[in-house]
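Task card 7
Instruction: Convert sequence to structure tokens.
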Amino acid sequence: MKKRWYVLLIIILLLVISFMQRKDLILLNINVDSEIKTIMKEKLSAQDLFNIWRTNYNLDNLSKEIKLDDYQYKNQGLYDVLTNNGAHNYQLVIKKSNAYLNEGNSIDEIKALIKNDDNKTYFIKMIDEGIYNEIDAKMVINPEKILSIANYRNNIYKYVPNDLELVNDVPLFDNDQYFLRKDTHQALQSLCDDLEKTFSNKCGDLVITSTYRSYQEQKELFQSELNKSNANIKLVLPAGASEHQLGNTVDMMVSYVTKENYQNTKQYQWIAKHAAEYGFIIRYPQDKEAITKISFEPWHLRYVGKEDASQIMSQKLCLEEYVDENK
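Output:
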């Protein structure tokens, strides 16, 4: 029996030696310095090395990137897309590329996004510099997805939903026009119908104070807040970082109650209990400010669909936690 194990061990050792020799043979034909060859031998498979040699791959970027932490050869294609389009911070190129692809985005989706020169300029800026003092900030690839997040670290830039509808059949704060994405609008109408049944008055005496807000509107709102002597950026987000721009966010208030007292109303207590039944969550809960970076906003509802809303509300999570747990 021992003899058989010795034979098996010898075979395995021979295979390993053969494998390593194959790497060495391929590396003889790849024109990089000895330091990079040593790292390539350690980090890349023989098949990877063979593909590099066979395609006469340009090693300028790879030679700089492979030395850095978190380098993954499988993501080299996206590293190349970003550096070839002007990104120069190789460590952030690697970190953010890995994050994009781990979140299920594809290289083709990113290529399609940055075909637009305006998007490309902004996207590369987010790679190299971050934005709003958040170096980890990145541009959202698919902001139309139901669970997309817009915040200081996830910027949707000039995204405009393609299914916005004029809000009707629900009480509005003023005579302005309000818009929401189709599914969110329908869910809001159902919510208001049941609030009326519960509290007798139309929509339970709640009024819509804010819905979709464009990139330009948010930019002006943020600048207006910055101009105040007592500016509070926990109340107003920069352009591209507000979920109102996603088109599936609604601010609701009881018409005769101040914002400060809204959370004490019966209407809010009812919404907090039943919002998930309509696909809504309280987007910025009271005990999650350390994660969301946003002060508690009981009036701020976010539509995510009934199934996800039920999970988020029952587990007492904020959206950031839920998305992170379900990557």
